[in-house]
Amino acid sequence: MSSSPPFSTTLLKVKPECIHFAKDQPLPTITDEETERNLKIAAHELLTTTNAIGFPTETVYGLGGSALCDESVKSIYRAKSRPADNPLITHVSSISQLQRKLLPAGYEIPTIYHKLIDHFWPGPLTILFPNVAPSPISSYVTANQDTFAVRMPQHPVARALIALSDLPLAAPSANSSTKPSPTMAQHVMHDLSGKIPLVLDGGSCAVGVESTVVDGLSSPPVLLRPGGVSLEELKRVGGDEWKDVVVAKRTAGDDEKVKTPGMKYKHYSPKAKVVLLINCGDGNEAVAEYIRENGVDVEAIRIALLKSRKFTESPLVHVTRDLGSSGAAIARNLFKCLREVDEQEKVDLIFVEGVDESDEGLAIMNRLSKAAMEVIQR
Ligand code: TXA
Ligand code: MG
Description:
Pfam family, one: Sua5_yciO_yrdC
Oligomer: single chain
Domain YrdC-like: 36-229
Bound molecules: threonylcarbamoyladenylate, magnesium ion
CATH class of the largest domain: Alpha Beta
EC number: 2.7.7.87
Number of domains: 2
Strand order of the largest sheet: 4-5-9-6-8-7-11-12-13
Shape: globular
């Protein structure tokens, strides 16, 4: 593969609170000049080049390019060194854009999605549609699957960028493949500076974990990836058609096969080794025991503890971060704190408190069990 062209990556500030979408209006009103100018620069880049750019969504930052253009999509894979067999989500700014640009003329959205779309869009829910030939969508987006995944992001910057360019954007998370997803523009800069021309900086992401991916084309429907919309909400809003939704054992596109510590395919992983502690009370004994049994030299290496609901401070660790206690707070802070202790505090070992798998807990534990090289369960 040819190496990416060198870029001097520009960070462009945008103010999400100055972008407003009125109901049924395709284009937003933008009340801040700098925000409007920078959004137009970004839209122009997407329309006139095949470069991928970084932008905020309510879940995590995305790395976007036109879903209709092979070269743009290839730029995405190249910038983040993503394996080509993992399909991308296409982002739209409105239902009419979805119909106009992606779906075949006259295609009716399956009824199983109606309540979900009404309630969760714009928002962190991704749904699958059949990919019918001849499709306008690049085959690099779908990785040759017979379906394609779509969501309408809620973040005003993401929506405005898609609306102004009138391009459905293929966008994975804007991290280097295997790293934790970025929830701040500086995380995108850390991973992709020099590899893409620009990043729109719209502040921190409110949700903090990626969208929930569901397949309503299968019967019964399947939850492919837990995320910003919980399984409980999905069932409650979806009603009868979603009450028997099956939770996929493995996240879609995830090819991890070996559970042996140190051998699995890496995902959401900082440089430091992550040890996930499940059901370990206040954590003190579990941390002490791990250190003792593994001969960890606390004088020689730096250790972090990410605690949430039950863990207390441990005298054996050097850096402690509190993820918060509500599911929403833990989700929002998870990737940010993993990056902070790894990239700034430069720790070698990270202990993380596990949470129960209800509500936001399912997505949190899904990400943590992938980030972890070892899981200690009591
Ligand atoms: O919140 C999000 O979804 C973020 C932001 C940027 O929108 N995007 C994101 O994209 O997380 P990515 O590429 O990191 O994850 C896409 C997920 C993968 O698990 C992939 O396997 C699944 O969606 N996916 C995409 N297309 C699919 C398809 N046709 N069938 C099954 N799964 C699909
Ligand atoms: Mg990702």
